[in-house]
TrEMBL record:
The active site is at H150 (proton donor/acceptor), K154 (proton donor). Keywords: Amino-acid biosynthesis, Cytoplasm, Diaminopimelate biosynthesis, Lysine biosynthesis, NAD, NADP, Oxidoreductase. Homotetramer. It is an enzyme of class 1 (oxidoreductase). It catalyses: (S)-2,3,4,5-tetrahydrodipicolinate + NADP(+) + H2O = (2S,4S)-4-hydroxy-2,3,4,5-tetrahydrodipicolinate + NADPH + H(+); (S)-2,3,4,5-tetrahydrodipicolinate + NAD(+) + H2O = (2S,4S)-4-hydroxy-2,3,4,5-tetrahydrodipicolinate + NADH + H(+). Pathway: Amino-acid biosynthesis; L-lysine biosynthesis via DAP pathway; (S)-tetrahydrodipicolinate from L-aspartate: step 4/4. Transmembrane segments: none annotated. This is 4-hydroxy-tetrahydrodipicolinate reductase. Its EC number is 1.17.1.8.
Length: 239
């Protein structure tokens, strides 16, 4: 078991997720040491709470790290993936909207480094996906519907998480239907309904705070240490 702090590079550090990652990592110095934080533009100040900050154009000069955690935008994804391959470091990425070419690059990188790319880093959703797969395989012929609710600013529908849950059901041979609601400031709710004749099961996950995604990404970062190269799911790294 690893006892020294994991050296992290936080990529997308000025964003909502980046800020949560910096705050939560700083609260556990015995487990995490942030050695660098990267933002799109030249940062000011250069050092915040002892963490050196770098612009995206300075990525080649960041200090040695064990794992890069990337929550940026698709245009920031290729450079951080290339850096991890070059440094033989692990990558945890939650950046959404990456292209199929970027997905292919991710698959190629997984032959040389351990990595996780996921649409949802909540550990609760990882467990929900397992439950959905189990229920779908035990209940052939039942109707499966996924209802997801998010805040009004979310553009994509169904959510990436709903599609991931749908894939879990489809892997057991089921056909899945989706419904999406956009209302208020809902962080994220997913209900997977299994309907048979005269009975119904509902599996529900509610995220009430964005920190769950940052906490899950930090957890996964530590679990990737000393793993062989590969493309892992959050589900593979729960304990
Ligand atoms: P945000 O807009 O608040 O922050 C984006 C960050 O990326 C900023 O720090 C910005 O400086 C940085 N950035 C942009 N372009 C860059 C580049 N070319 N190089 C380096 N850095 C660059 O966004 P957010 O809410 O923090 O979300 C970030 C990403 O994470 C989005 O893709 C979002 O959809 C995704 N997200 C994923 C999960 C999950 O669990 N998988 C959860 C929340 C958000």
């Amino acid at each position: 078991m690893n006892t020294s702090p994991t050296r992290l590079l936080i990529h997308g550090a000025s964003g909502r997720m980046g800020q949560a990652l910096l705050r939560l990592a700083a609260a556990e110095p015995e487990r995490y040491q942030v050695v660098g934080a990267v933002t799109r533009r030249t940062p000011s100040p250069r050092v915040v709470d002892g963490v050196p900050h770098f612009a995206a154009s300075e990525l080649a000069g960041v200090p040695a790290f064990d794992v890069a955690i990337d929550f940026s935008l698709p245009e920031g994804f290729d450079p951080v993936l290339a850096l991890c391959v070059e440094r033989k470091a692990a990558l945890v990425s939650g950046t959404t909207g990456i292209s199929s070419a970027q997905q292919s690059a991710l698959a190629a990188a997984a032959t040389t480094i351990p990595l996780v790319w996921a649409t949802n880093f909540s550990l609760g959703v990882a467990v929900l996906a397992e439950l959905v797969e189990r229920a779908a395989s035990a209940l052939p012929g039942w109707d499966i519907d996924i209802v997801e609710s998010h805040h009004v600013h979310k553009k994509d529908a169904p959510s990436g998480t709903a599609l991931t849950l749908g894939q879990a059901a489809a892997s057991a041979g089921a056909q899945v239907h989706y419904a999406s609601l956009r209302a208020g400031d809902i962080v994220g709710e997913h209900t997977v309904q299994f309907a048979g004749l005269g009975e119904r099961i509902e599996l529900v996950h509610r995220a009430t705070h964005r920190d769950v995604f940052a906490r899950g990404a930090l957890h996964v970062a530590r679990k990737l240490l000393d793993r062989p190269a590969g493309d892992y799911r959050v589900r593979d790294l729960l304990d």
